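Suppose a colleague, Dr. K., hands you the sequence of a protein chain of 378 amino acids and asks what its three-dimensional shape might be. Before reaching for any lab equipment, you can write down a predicted structure in token form. Begin with the sequence itself:
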Amino acid sequence: MTHHPVLVVGGCGFIGYHIVRHFVQAVKFSPIWVMSRSAANSANTVDGVNYIDGDLGDYETIQRVLQDVRPHIIVHAATPSPVTGTPKEYQRIVVDGTKNLLGLAKGSPDVRVLIFTSSSTIAKGHEHLSLDESFPLADTDPKASAYARTKAMADVMVLKANCPLPQADVGLDWSGFLFTGTLRLPICYGTHDTVSIPGCLRALRKGQTNVQLGDGKNLWDFCSTENAGNAHVLLTQALLTPKNDKDRIGGEAFHIHDGQSRPFWDYARSVWRLAGHKKKEERVTTLPIWFISGLAALLEFLFWAFTFGRKRPQTLGKQQVEYACYTHTYNIDKARQRLGYVPIQDFEGELAKGVNWSLKHNGWGDKLKGLELEIPEM
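The predicted structure, expressed as tokens, is then:
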């Protein structure tokens, strides 16, 4: 059996960790390498994986890593936080870093596949109603958030870089050729989460369970890390070994999620319940979208002005308001049909794993002490 070396850029992050874990479980891929800025001291490591310190924004570092590792597969999962990242960080890592990585990968005689871990939220506009992959993106939308706009730019860049090796050419030198694809993920949840579950637990600690942004009717398609990790392996396999020319999927994007839509605020309330919050007969204060959007814009400006663009609001920025108040649902028929993607639908079980991990390993068990909670045994 041919074994394909894999390099996961950003493999110490939340989603990156689970991507790495799934490639380790797929015997066709080895050895597995991870390049990350936090590789030397990260707790998000997987046994049997090789870790390298490296910055995607450093061209020479990427060049050296590709020469040393000689991967057949590259997964680009590196990104600043969608919540607290700054426009400068997005430009450096998401846009410039992706451009450098693509150029070096395409010039490599070894690299055959490059997959970009993208976001469903790069679609244009605030409201996303069962969108498919053909819907216009935020790369040309000046009103879009910096995160959505730069992720869309990178997504388009990766898809345009697809240049398959001619089928008649059986040589081993892939210089100038590359299969590419992108996976567009919504809000993900699971163990090692540093964004969505901690954000809900932070609201619980502050006693904000009775505050709701918007009318609460907006739906979301969430994605477990099990589904996200599995989708990366499926796309890699499909790009490497198409059954015939008609099955070639290079240069295409795929939405990935659990296959079930649910109200956005049900997610937060599920996290609170799983963390031990006792549901009370409390009056919920609903803040209208017009008010909360204006407040978020003001906070974004104040943070920008007083930190010289180095920080953004952690709990009430433009991105959080869009997520909390507008519907974000996406059609995954293409992934089902072209990749054979069958989502695992175990929202309660996978979310419980994520909440329990945050309570036990991410310090939230101690942070929530003193509240009237029935914290589950771990």
